[in-house]
TrEMBL record:
Signal peptide: 1-19
Domain Cystatin residue range list: 26-115
Pfam families: SQAPI
Name of the protein described by the UniProt record: Cystatin domain-containing protein
Superkingdom, taxonomy of origin: Eukaryota
Gene3D superfamilies the UniProt entry points to: 3.10.450.10
Organism of derivation: Rubus argutus
Length: 116
């Protein structure tokens, strides 16, 4: 049985492609850190996440600040934010994931949970 030529080509080029990807940085579609957590759009996304969570849960959390954030380009953009919030006098950190399609003016809260 003769080896398939495509397998031989893949065996040669796959290691080269993988090495090139390592030098260029993260893969397209991967999570990228947000450089400016004080950007007004990032704060708007965080406020949206807290507001949507409050509507669904009946809680009254108040956003204090964005502690950490990442974005992921998909068919739109996902924001994964760690936010410092207050519930009455108790402070806690929550992670929220928001999906936004800015050209359609739509946002959706995908998840919101307390983190330690």
């Amino acid at each position: 049985m003769r080896p398939h030529p495509l397998l031989a080509i893949l065996a040669v080029f796959l290691p080269l492609v993988a090495a090139a990807a390592d030098r260029r940085g993260p893969l397209v579609g991967g999570w990228q850190p947000i450089k400016d957590l004080n950007d007004p759009h990032v704060k708007e996304i965080a406020e949206f996440a807290v507001s949507e969570y409050n509507k669904k849960s009946g809680k009254k959390l108040v956003l204090q600040s964005v502690v950490k954030g990442e974005t992921q380009v998909v068919a739109g953009e996902k924001y994964r934010l760690v936010m410092a919030v207050k519930d009455n006098s108790l402070a806690a950190n929550y992670e929220g994931v928001v999906y936004e399609r800015i050209w359609e003016h739509t946002r959706q809260l995908l998840s919101f949970k307390q983190v330690k």
